[in-house]
Amino acid sequence: MCAKLNHGFTSKDVRKFAFSLAAEYGKRIPPSWFKNEMAGKYWMTNYLKRYPLSIRTAEAASLGRAMGFNKVVVQKFFDNLQKVIEKHHFRSDKIYNVDETALTTVQETGKVVAMKGQRQVGQITSSERRTLVTMCGAINADDNNISPLLIFPRKFFKNHMIKGAPNGTIGVASPSGWMTSLIFV
What we know:
Layout: H1 11-24, H2 31-36, H3 41-50, H4 63-68, H5 71-88, E1 96-104, E2 132-140, E3 145-153, E4 170-174, H6 181-184
Parallel strand pairs: 3-4
Antiparallel strand pairs: 1-2, 2-3
């Protein structure tokens, strides 16, 4: 339940909570739990087996985003959108959804198959420091899209930077590599 509210418990949190509940309700507690004031790893493993739970890597979620996404807020957004569409007579081919994402210029290394017992496994990748490039894409309800826009973290843009990119890709430079109002317009 807590994970659904973006406040998931770590394994340690659950183990500490189990210890405090057992102590509060006067349950028999193994002596090993008292040392760290938490249930043991073996208890945690068995607990996960008894219930449909698993250890997952949490995604970062800002408090503003988590609090702002609820039925009332979403309904208000669509009510406002409907008013604007009716007032200005916008057609679906004139309303675009725009999103930007960061792309890395250095390939991530993934999991690879290796001989059992081999402790160190390498995968060739660039040794340069990672640089993030912002990509902006836009599409409308009629399935029309605008060519991708790549924003490079530089003072000046050079055409070779988009060599091999999809046809029509537009490249620009920005000192931060982020979208600015000047670039957007």
